[in-house]
Design brief:
Helix content: 40-55%
Largest sheet: 8 strands, parallel, barrel
CATH superfamily: Aldolase class I
CATH topology: TIM Barrel
Mean pLDDT: 95
Number of helices: 13
Number of domains: 1
CATH architecture: Alpha-Beta Barrel
CATH class: Alpha Beta
Strand order of the largest sheet: 2-3-4-5-6-7-8-9
Radius of gyration: 19 Å
Low-confidence stretches: none
Shape: globular
Distance between the termini: 13 Å
Strand content: 5-15%
């Protein structure tokens, strides 16, 4: 059982439902959102990105427990969110330097956890690309970086959400059958690494441990039987004592919902989701090609339906983080 200070516990409560389920909306995309917009116009202007995030925040945060934004383009959207929604702010620079081996982490130049807190954040989120099988020379740099961020979060009394994205330095396509074979080891073992108390992580944001498109009954090519996949979801839960939430990784809303049901049936004790593109991605086209009113109409109809359906699935499938975390005062009363 992880123990949080009263300040951290309250901040984490702000990001979740009363029942301790995190149903958060992620729109901290920067490079990815630029590419999505650039499909429909020559170049994505900063104002396009800011305005779209703000519209998504206004329309969808009444139905989300919190929203994840970036401080580069997302602060107007943070101000526009529903009063009931908590705020997570991203601390990492978007993408990684492809000219240097190892996908090394880097934080935003003019931000610190103190500044994220001053901007109204209830939690700090950091995205780390990690290959459990990469050299110690690279992985030790990443571990030290996470120790620094964890210490900053403790100093500021802000929960630390660590987003872990797996990869293999030798496999270029993470959606390939070749990668699907090694993904369970990559995902589950790195969760175990960063559950060590030295990193001061409060919530892990992770991929599901398999590529569902290669699970028997979900896709045409099979890498894992249903039984094998279920065992891997169960194993994932056993890798950590921390609350963990799933990212949608850009899959369709329907596949993501099916995946959560599969996880529950397998015995996974996941504590919610931070769901991005699966909720709002198809709103980009009407926004760029037809304008703000068309985007709002899409978000009020299909976008809201996506989030309502996801919330219904979460009520059936997710576990409360209250079962994994106690407030220091509460723990003292029971000791």
């Amino acid at each position: 059982m992880k123990i949080l200070t009263e300040e951290q516990y309250q901040a984490l409560t702000n990001t979740s439902s009363q029942d301790g389920i995190i149903g958060a909306l992620a729109i901290d995309q920067r490079g990815a959102l630029k590419k999505m917009i650039a499909k429909y116009k020559n170049e994505a202007a900063d104002q396009d990105i800011e305005a779209f995030k703000k519209i998504v925040s206004e329309e969808l945060t009444p139905y989300a427990s919190s929203i994840l934004l970036d401080p580069e383009y997302g602060l107007p959207a943070a101000d526009a969110r529903a009063e009931s929604a908590g705020l997570l702010l991203a601390y990492e620079k978007t993408g990684y330097d492809a000219t240097t081996p190892g996908r090394l982490p880097d934080s935003l130049n003019v931000w610190s956890v103190k500044r994220l807190k001053e901007a109204g954040a209830d939690a700090c989120k950091f995205l780390l690309y990690y290959d459990i099988d990469e050299s110690d020379e690279i992985n030790d740099q990443k571990k030290a970086y996470m120790e620094r961020i964890g210490s900053e979060c403790v100093a500021e009394g802000l929960p630390f959400f660590l987003e872990l994205v797996s990869y293999d330095a030798a496999i270029s396509d993470a959606s390939s059958k070749e990668y699907a074979k090694v993904k369970p080891h990559k995902v589950n073992d790195m969760m175990k690494v960063f559950s060590d108390p030295r990193y001061n992580v409060d919530v892990l944001k992770v991929e599901v441990p398999v590529n569902m498109k290669f699970v028997e009954g979900f896709g045409e090519e099979i890498v894992y039987s249903k039984e094998e996949a279920a065992k891997l979801f169960k194993e994932q839960s056993e890798m950590t004592h921390l609350p963990f939430i799933f990212l949608s990784a850009g899959v369709s809303a329907s596949l993501f919902q099916e995946t959560l049901r599969f996880a529950k049936a397998a015995g996974s004790t996941f504590n919610g989701v931070l769901c991005g593109r699966a909720t709002w991605a198809n709103g980009v086209e009407p926004y760029i090609t037809k304008g703000e009113a068309a985007a709002r109409e899409w978000l009020q109809t299909q976008g809201r339906q996506n989030i309502d359906e996801l919330n219904a699935v979460l009520r059936e499938t997710a576990t409360s983080w209250h079962e994994k975390i106690q407030c220091k005062q509460q723990a003292a009363r029971f000791s």
